[in-house]
Sequence to fold (217 residues):
Amino acid sequence: MGDDSDGEAEEYLFKVVIIGDSAVGKSNLLSRYARNEFNLHSKATIGVEFQTQSMDIDGKEVKAQIWDTAGQERFRAVTSAYYRGAFGALLVYDISRRGTFDNVGRWLQELNTHSDTTVAKMLVGNKCDLDNIREVPVEEGKALAESEGLFFMETSALDSTNVNTAFELVIKEIYSSVSRKILNSDSYKAELSLNRVSIDDGDSKDGQKQTSRLGCC
Ligand code: GTP
Ligand code: MG
Fold:
């Protein structure tokens, strides 16, 4: 019998949110990660969508429920509900549009205002395949991330550069910080299970991917 056989399945489900201006590539990063799909002509997101993706860490099944919403204010869902219970966040800008980088501070502020626990945050400079029309140097992204205490990575949802790495790094960071806290405190475990995102996921197992549309919540 394994050492985790205390009746509770040793399974984790962490909510991760993707934020950033419209058309920076949030939805394509998610579809690339969850389904290895990319859409050149994707429509602006309306409301909220999420996908659940599993990965194995230290022999444990860790599921990430990754939420994607509209960058455009008028299409966004209720802000507080979007951030509630998030353990990780990807703050995305488009390296070929400086304005999207200039707005990162605003997104970070919103995240900090609405998140209710320690959040593993990564700054993501997407569309690095567009190096020829780059408006934000890599060094600027790195410097901002350093000053704000964020992880940093440039990605391309189009050619897949660093997409899996970015999501997996955030999920591993969440897992290790949660494991550390569990080691240090039994009461945290109870707190964690309260804070868990519960979804009626139709009992999807074994890394099965799913898409749910919540419209506006
Ligand atoms: P909203 O839903 O409006 O907030 O936008 P979004 O951030 O979800 O952007 P979306 O993923 O819909 O992508 C916007 C456009 O950028 C689409 O035309 C994509 O094909 C394109 N795109 C996304 N990622 C990349 C990338 O890595 N490289 C390039 N060249 N284009 C990309
Ligand atoms: Mg979108």
In short: The mean pLDDT is 85.
